[in-house]
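Good morning C.,

I know you're traveling, so I'll keep this short. The sequence:
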Amino acid sequence: MTAADVGDRDGAAVLLDGVRAKFPRLSYGWADQGYRGPFLDWARQAAGVALQVVARRDGGMRRSWAPAGAPPRVVPRFAVVPRRWVVERTFAWLGRYRRLAKDYEYLPATSENTVCLAMTLTLTRRLARAPA
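The tokens, ready to paste straight into the viewer:
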């Protein structure tokens, strides 16, 4: 977790900088469309992690261009983005904890610890329910 004034790419660079030391088996991940461009090459070369940019199947375009005389391409207003559900599901799990419903913490480390505690509780409950 970082402060609100830190950009996503800058925060991801800090995260990926030492990720191979802690998680040597990590070699692949998914990223949002905001991470396109030179960041993908940097992640592969410096961090050793190959990132795939997850995009809408229509390329993220709400409107489409068609040549003269051709019918316009139909672009749906709602499109499911592959693998995005994993992130949204995790946010929904975190949203069940009252302290994480709003961000009142002063220090980013406190927010990070609260998220770790919430995920630990979530996974512990799931393990307790799992059949042996």
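Safe travels,
E.
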